Amino acid sequence: MIKVGIVGGTGYTGVELLRLLTQHPEVDVSVITSRSEAGIPVADMYPNLRGHLDLAFSEPDVDVLGACDAVFFATPHGVAHALAAPLLAQGTRVIDLSADFRIKDPQIWAHWYNQAHGAPELLPEAVYGLPEVNRNAIKDARLIAVPGCYPTAVQLGYLPLIRAGLIALDSLIADCKSGVSGAGRGAKVGSLLCEASESMKAYSMNGHRHLPEITQGLQEAAQSSVNLLFMPHLTPMIRGIHASLYATLTPEAQRMTLAELQAVFEQTYAQETFVDVMPLGSAPETRSVRGSNMCRIAVHRPQEGAHVCVLSVIDNLVKGASGQAVQNLNIMFGFAEDAGLKQVALLP
Ligand SMILES: NC(=O)C1=CN([C@@H]2O[C@H](COP(=O)(O)OP(=O)(O)OC[C@H]3O[C@@H](n4cnc5c(N)ncnc54)[C@H](OP(=O)(O)O)[C@@H]3O)[C@@H](O)[C@H]2O)C=CC1
Ligand SMILES: CC(=O)N[C@@H](CCC(=O)OP(=O)(O)O)C(=O)O
């Protein structure tokens, strides 16, 4: 058994980590921090954990956390910048669910996150924790930047086409929908029931902070520049990301049949436990992944025209955050990659 800690246990990704880790055969959660709830039993705040976890929130303390084999950060941006270095120095591996180490250029990070980067010296060793792309680097990493929710759904959808050189790289449009839990647990007017239910709207139309993260990943895969239009929407559901991903097929790819495009996706993800390429003609639903670490994908070519449309769904709190974080932990410590992640999605 390894000992793990969680910094920021009261948010949705923190409690989702606990839901998964209490079922993990190789992990003992020994510390969970909250400054505002220190001393309160975790199961008093989250009754779904009653009978599964006998632990109270505590103040973040670097020495206590440093006794863990790994520490997850489920905190707002900027917190891991300050605490990662002292933990790494004590030999503790760090898995950060925030965006602190996702973007390789600290100036680009500062532009999109409106603050100076607090630990640029750690960026060279931080590994972007998308296992379907970086599994080998994750094995040896000390510091993982867990991808954001939209970036996970969008990259997994586009990667097979980009790797195979099948789409024009200046033609990408990602039309994405998120459930409200993506905005976190903090009180915000836009997350109120009367504001978010029975309605849907676009936001960050002129640029969302996930744009540079997605572009960085797609450009790495393409080894060339990529032009992406990314439009996020808030939808009246609690969990889920639905990404409709469009692109123009290259002239050569337009000579391929849909079945051949489907085969590209099936081959790319044949060995991946957590990516399900659905049969031709499928429309993946967010509820088919709710509570599970799966990404379900379907590829379409409407009217057999010049455009491809990939549909990609994940649960923002699982494959989009805490489940992917546990998948990284499993790879780092040599556990079965699906340890603690065998949940079947909750449907209906
Ligand atoms: N919600 C989602 O779908 C996704 C979220 N993420 C990212 O995961 C991270 C966590 O998000 P979410 O779960 O929504 O959490 P919240 O932002 O709602 O909660 C943050 C947690 O961090 C703690 N915290 C805040 N400030 C500090 C600090 N300075 N030092 C130590 N602890 C602190 C809080 O507890 P306290 O203040 O009591 O200490 C709280 O437990 C964010 O970076 C978010 O962007 C990533 C992917 C998806
Ligand atoms: C619905 C909603 O508000 N979603 C969040 C994204 C989810 C998230 O928290 O992503 P990070 O991990 O990059 O912070 C947003 O658009 O800001």
Automatic annotation (TrEMBL):
<keyword id="KW-0963">Cytoplasm</keyword>
<keyword id="KW-0028">Amino-acid biosynthesis</keyword>
<keyword id="KW-0560">Oxidoreductase</keyword>
<dbReference type="InterPro" id="IPR000706">
    <property type="entry name" value="AGPR_type-1"/>
</dbReference>
<dbReference type="GO" id="GO:0051287">
    <property type="term" value="F:NAD binding"/>
</dbReference>
<dbReference type="InterPro" id="IPR050085">
    <property type="entry name" value="AGPR"/>
</dbReference>
<comment type="similarity">
    <text>Belongs to the NAGSA dehydrogenase family. Type 1 subfamily.</text>
</comment>
<protein>
    <recommendedName>
        <fullName>N-acetyl-gamma-glutamyl-phosphate reductase</fullName>
        <ecNumber>1.2.1.38</ecNumber>
    </recommendedName>
</protein>
<dbReference type="GO" id="GO:0003942">
    <property type="term" value="F:N-acetyl-gamma-glutamyl-phosphate reductase activity"/>
</dbReference>
<dbReference type="Pfam" id="PF22698">
    <property type="entry name" value="Semialdhyde_dhC_1"/>
</dbReference>
<dbReference type="InterPro" id="IPR000534">
    <property type="entry name" value="Semialdehyde_DH_NAD-bd"/>
</dbReference>
<keyword id="KW-0521">NADP</keyword>
<comment type="function">
    <text>Catalyzes the NADPH-dependent reduction of N-acetyl-5-glutamyl phosphate to yield N-acetyl-L-glutamate 5-semialdehyde.</text>
</comment>
<feature type="domain" description="Semialdehyde dehydrogenase NAD-binding">
    <location>
        <begin position="3"/>
        <end position="141"/>
    </location>
</feature>
<dbReference type="Pfam" id="PF01118">
    <property type="entry name" value="Semialdhyde_dh"/>
</dbReference>
<dbReference type="GO" id="GO:0005737">
    <property type="term" value="C:cytoplasm"/>
</dbReference>
<dbReference type="GO" id="GO:0070401">
    <property type="term" value="F:NADP+ binding"/>
</dbReference>
<keyword id="KW-0055">Arginine biosynthesis</keyword>
<dbReference type="GO" id="GO:0006526">
    <property type="term" value="P:L-arginine biosynthetic process"/>
</dbReference>
<dbReference type="InterPro" id="IPR036291">
    <property type="entry name" value="NAD(P)-bd_dom_sf"/>
</dbReference>
<comment type="pathway">
    <text>Amino-acid biosynthesis; L-arginine biosynthesis; N(2)-acetyl-L-ornithine from L-glutamate: step 3/4.</text>
</comment>
<feature type="active site">
    <location>
        <position position="149"/>
    </location>
</feature>
<dbReference type="InterPro" id="IPR058924">
    <property type="entry name" value="AGPR_dimerisation_dom"/>
</dbReference>
